[in-house]
Amino acid sequence: MNRLQPILYACLLIYLAAVLQSGWWNHWRILGCRPDGFLIVSGVLAVRSNPAGAGMAGFMAGVVQGGLAGANLAHYGISRLIAGSCGAWLARLLGPKSWGVALLAIAGTTLLGNLSLLFLAAPPDISGYLIETFKTLAINLLFGALLHGFLSRVWPPRDFQD
Amino acid sequence: MSKLAGWLWFPALFALAIGLGRVQNQARRKGEFDPVSSAIQSAVYPLSEPLRASVQRLADMGEAVRSAPELRLEHERLRQLAAAGEQYSAREKIWLQDYQALRKLSGFQAPVDRKRIPARPLDYFPLENRMTLSVGKNRGVKPGLAVVNAEGLIGVVQAVSEASCQILLLSSPALRVGAMALREPPLAGILRGQGLETLLLDYLPANAKVESGDWVVTSGYSQHIPRGLIIGRVVQIERDPYYGATRARIYPSATIGLAAEVYILL
Question: What interface predicted TM-score (ipTM) does this complex get?
Fold first, then answer.
């Protein structure tokens, strides 16, 4: 894989997340939960990249998410930058990449992304937001596992142990 | 040294994010989209909109199959209602003529009949209390206009591009709308969102005789939002004798965020 390919994959995944989020997941819940495609992609990329690369991918995903929502781009950019880089750092800390590490990184990215957004732009109903975050975490793990499994065929993490 | 250079991306991206936020706020103050958001929406909507329409069709089909008997009954009930409504509308025309004649006699201008622009939601962001609609400057939409559906007011236009606009939903704490409880005389205050299921009518007088179940509508003390658009019903009253104010919690009439078709009132 050359240097450009991961960037291309990341851009493609973020675009796919934007289309799915805007065309489907924002309008209909799945099993009572609303997935966050941008955090799923940030989590999956965090397993495959170093903290700087995952942070940049997270930042890009955040700006796209904020731009679509008309939300403050700074809040989304910064929260997803933190989530992506911390997710990658967590994946490194946990050792060789396995399914467990990947799922933990996706969960960590989702939690950190939403919690840092909570501090940057607190919603009026914090308890409702936290409940929604845990629901999103559950469905993100499901979709994240699917995406990680699919992506591992074409772009496995460097030290992935199946 | 190279490690340090690797970490320099973070403050740079932080600064970039803050810069983007500022550009966005400046554009929003002018009632426009910032260039970054516009570019992102232009790139995503051509694919996401057909996807949304397809998923909607599938969901509708499933719903129709699941609740076919109820839909038949509902259809029959609506036919009867429509027949009754036709009789009523003839009388309504006479009342309206009387009302306008009385206004003219009293020296008031005749009420302006607002043009309604139908629109489809392109995108909905519950966390941000925002919705993107399918009409923009090309249909005369501008910031501040009211957005309604059959159930009542759902939001106010905030930013407009050529072919789309973004509305701030009634559930948003950032939105302030002049509203009044329908009492004799009406009790006017300022309404703001507290989430999808609660709105707050604030700045009512301390001795305001508002009660649970009262209807709340727009007060019309605004350039763009007309008087009398239904907002919801009072469900709880909080009196604060210390500040000499009363506030009422409102349950919104419209299912905010689930509207499939809306109208913008020009």
Answer: 0.88
